[in-house]
């Protein structure tokens, strides 16, 4: 038997979802059965699948050890990540990090251990704000993600309540996200909203763009404004009105203005000799516009946060 005292970060979850986190190898059907026959209890009593846990509750699991993570599994795997972290803003609930191009946000199929979330967890652990041994089901987590080769602001939640609220605000488009990018050519008009339909190929990790709806395609809306120009390139400020995979890269290329450094939606020939290893795209600014939906984050309403330096803006001396 293992017992789990419910803390603030565990509270608010359904019992079955909590159990899946602490006993990830327990099959769903067996989980339901164990709740029904009282091998999973809350405060010593029978509970339901959808029982909402509160701080101070005690969850008791009378199940085999094989369903729990191995004891030798290190909860400090994030110590393999580097310490380098560029913090745009931080308070007791969240942290805004400026991710460098080339850094993955989470461990991917490559097995890379130096990730943005690893760096954030290491930082919070070393400053005493995160203790894995004191947590049952929560660890600091990212609320949004950006591509490996894109730089810019990523939001990390320090507690479960913040993770829940920020995820909801992002879904409801109540956190405004602005990008800067460099494109080949000079867009006409200088300011517009692109509306297309994007179809993602999961195997090829590539997005196709269409003018008309088709099965499986999702609406994508991107607002852009030309901020500066030179003889070959334009610097655009872009606001995402929807959040689709590779949205800016795919839509701008489809419009005839591929991003500098982007060989997936542009071409290698076009980029030859430019010296750019990554696409010139940066999530440089966010603004909280959540009103009452912000809940305990209401102090952020109306506030905007911006990175100090975007690597490619020096191409445009007048900017």
Automatic annotation (TrEMBL):
SMART domains: S4
Domain of life: Bacteria
Residue ranges of the TM segments: none
Protein name (Swiss-Prot/TrEMBL): RNA pseudouridylate synthase
Pfam families hit by this protein: PseudoU_synth_2 (PF00849)
InterPro entries named among the record's database cross-references: PsdUridine_synth_cat_dom_sf, PsdUridine_synth_RsuA/RluA, RluA_PseudoU_synthase, S4_RNA-bd, S4_RNA-bd_sf
Organism listed in the record: Yanshouia hominis
Keywords: Isomerase, RNA-binding
Lineage, opening ranks: Bacteria, Bacillati, Bacillota, Clostridia, Eubacteriales
Catalysed conversion reaction: a uridine in RNA = a pseudouridine in RNA
Domain RNA-binding S4 span(s) in chain numbering: 13-74
Record family assignment: Belongs to the pseudouridine synthase RluA family.
CDD domains, A to Z: PseudoU_synth_RluA_like, S4
């Amino acid at each position: 038997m293992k017992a789990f005292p419910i803390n603030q970060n565990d509270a608010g979850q359904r019992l079955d979802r909590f159990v899946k986190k602490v006993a990830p190898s327990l099959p769903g059907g067996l989980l339901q059965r164990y709740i029904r026959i009282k091998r999973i209890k809350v405060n010593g009593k029978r509970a339901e699948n959808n029982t909402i846990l509160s701080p101070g509750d005690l969850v008791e699991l009378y199940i085999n050890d094989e369903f729990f993570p191995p004891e030798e599994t290190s909860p400090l795997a994030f110590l393999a990540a580097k310490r380098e972290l560029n913090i745009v803003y931080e308070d007791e609930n969240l942290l805004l990090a400026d991710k460098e191009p080339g850094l993955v946000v989470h461990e991917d199929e490559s097995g890379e251990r130096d990730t943005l979330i690893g760096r954030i967890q290491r930082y919070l652990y070393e400053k005493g704000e995160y203790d894995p041994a004191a947590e049952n089901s929560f660890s600091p987590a990212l609320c949004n993600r950006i591509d490996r080769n894109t730089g810019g602001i990523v939001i990390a939640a320090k507690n479960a309540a913040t993770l829940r609220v920020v995820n909801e605000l992002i879904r409801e488009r109540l956190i405004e996200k602005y990008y800067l990018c460099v494109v080949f050519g000079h867009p006409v008009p200088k300011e517009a909203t692109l509306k297309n339909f994007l179809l993602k190929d999961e195997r090829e990790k590539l997005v196709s763009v269409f003018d008309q709806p088709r099965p499986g395609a999702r609406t994508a809306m991107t607002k852009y404004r030309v901020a500066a120009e030179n003889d070959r390139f334009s610097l655009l400020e872009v606001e995402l009105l929807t959040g689709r995979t590779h949205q800016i890269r795919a839509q701008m290329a489809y419009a005839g203005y591929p991003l500098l450094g982007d060989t997936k939606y542009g071409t290698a020939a076009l980029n030859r000799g430019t010296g750019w290893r990554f696409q010139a795209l940066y999530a440089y600014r966010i603004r909280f516009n959540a009103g009452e939906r912000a809940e305990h984050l209401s102090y952020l309403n109306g506030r905007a946060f911006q990175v100090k330096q975007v690597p490619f803006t020096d191409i445009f001396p007048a900017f």
